[in-house]
Specification:
binds 4-fluoro-L-phenylalanine; 0% strand; 447 residues; mainly alpha; 19 helices; Hydantoin permease
Length: 447
């Protein structure tokens, strides 16, 4: 078998992982969850969740990937536990499932870029969303988005993913800052920032029971955990990177982009006097509520193209990481050239995504399963494996290259074994309750 690729530089790995983390979860869900859950109070909960659940869980995936240098399924066998391959398989399945409808949303974004050029949605945003979000046009747009994703992954780690994300991630940051400056001139800007960032303790206290699982779920999704992405990406990492430091950089960058997204979105919403409720965060939030305000901005069409252009780049750099999970598995196991594998996986994704593209009700159905069941279950199983089954090896691996941060490894292990485990168990229990026992949705899912 030909030699397995690695990232050419550490920055290459970091940018690819940040590209994966920064996606629709940040640009759209984070601001809305914040706004509807007590503003800055939610940000505080979220930061804690990122620190004590997301960050340690990310390191767990890193350790598995770098230790074994293979795909997310075979990694378990390499760690000496063949039966646990099933858990890797489940994480890969979860990712595949999620990507099937993420591509559909990617297709919507493409349509909105075109729609911005013509100002097509300014007059009737809800009508435009209805027209492009389902049916044959949505299928076509899904296929185009997926084609771009397959095209990048087909080139491999160095020439495909690394080169692409090196351009994409800095572009996201620069363009977001430009958008933030653009909306700062709006009359509702001050009010928007206040709404987004000032704590409402009343809301927070009244809803603490649901805010905590929200925060945990958000931390998990936005960091691309439980889908085998971080196992796969870290399997291409060189020997002595400091994983703790790298994880910290990824987590902080991801959070900053989420906050930047709120700084862009809320001035627009408050200027047009949009009512912000939990419903606004559901399907079509970005596409209806926010897009409704674009028409009032100076150079509205240019703004629309740039805004949805950023969303497209973020969605693409996340989707490629998820396609790479499946392709890495196939590439490690079958002697078939990568472009064929990427194409075959793309075809499978296209078919699985057809119901979601045809009718948004299916998209919500797929998303509910992923968000309420598959993600927390997959995360939980990974946590049990790394924390309890191979804990000592995991600590050894984390220590490698960790420089001064090595002593942090034991704290990490116990945080994983206890805090992450309990948080994910709780999230899963709530998901099961919501899905099967008919309680009110405690989460609102990203789509
Ligand atoms: N962190 C990503 C996001 O916030 O959008 C999660 C993700 C979803 C990654 C879907 C990849 C993907 F295909």
């Amino acid at each position: 078998m030909s030699e397995r690729e690695t990232w050419t530089t550490r920055v290459g790995f970091l940018l690819a992982a940040i590209g994966s983390a920064v996606g629709l979860g940040n640009l759209w869900q984070f601001p809305f969850k914040t706004a509807t859950n007590g503003g800055a109070a939610f940000v505080a909960f979220y930061l804690v969740a990122v620190l004590v659940v997301g960050f340690p869980a990310m390191l767990a995936e890193f350790v598995l990937g770098r230790r074994t240098n293979v795909n997310a399924v075979d990694a378990f066998e390499e760690m000496g536990h063949r039966n646990w391959r099933l858990v890797g398989g489940f994480a890969v399945f979860t990712g595949f499932w999620i990507l099937s409808y993420y591509n559909v949303v990617g297709g919507w974004v493409l349509r909105y870029i075109l729609g911005s050029v013509r100002g097509a949605y300014f007059g009737d945003p809800a009508g435009y969303f209805g027209a492009v979000s389902s049916g044959p046009e949505a299928v076509l747009a899904q296929a185009i988005f997926l084609g771009i994703v397959v095209g990048i992954v087909a080139f491999g780690i160095e020439d495909g993913i690394e080169k692409a994300t090196k351009v994409m991630v800095p572009s996201i940051v620069v363009l977001m800052i430009a958008l933030a400056a653009w909306v700062a001139t709006l009359p509702g800007a001050g009010e928007g920032y206040a709404f987004f960032l000032s704590p409402d303790l009343g809301t927070m206290v009244a809803n603490a029971g649901s805010i905590i699982p929200f925060a945990v779920g958000q931390a998990f999704f936005t960091l691309s955990l439980g889908m085998a992405i971080m196992i796969t990406y870290s399997s291409y990492v060189g020997e002595d990177d400091n994983l703790i430091f790298d994880g910290g950089v990824i987590v902080v960058s991801n959070t900053l982009v989420g906050i930047l997204a709120g700084i862009v979105v809320f001035p627009i919403l408050l200027t047009i006097g949009a009512e912000i409720t939990t419903q606004t965060g559901g399907a079509g939030a970005l596409f209806v509520a926010t897009a409704a305000g674009f028409g009032t901005l100076p150079y509205s069409r240019v703004f629309g193209v740039v805004f949805f252009g950023v969303v497209l780049i973020a969605a693409l750099s996340s989707a490629i990481s998820l396609l790479e999970v499946t392709v890495a598995y196939a590439n490690d196991n079958y002697g078939v050239p990568r472009p064929y594998l990427a194409g075959a996986a793309g075809l499978g994704l296209f078919v699985l995504g057809l119901p979601s593209a045809w009718d948004t009700a299916w998209l919500t159905w797929f998303d509910n399963f992923a968000y309420q069941l598959f993600l927390p279950l997959s995360g939980l199983l990974l946590t049990v494996f790394v924390g309890w089954i191979v804990g000592r090896d995991a600590v050894d691996e984390l220590r490698r290259g960790a420089d001064g941060l090595g002593s942090f490894s034991d704290v990490w292990l116990w945080t994983l074994r206890l805090v992450v485990l309990v948080a994910l168990l709780g999230t899963l229990a709530l998901g099961v309750q919501t899905m099967f026992l008919g309680s009110d949705a405690a989460f609102f899912a990203p789509f």
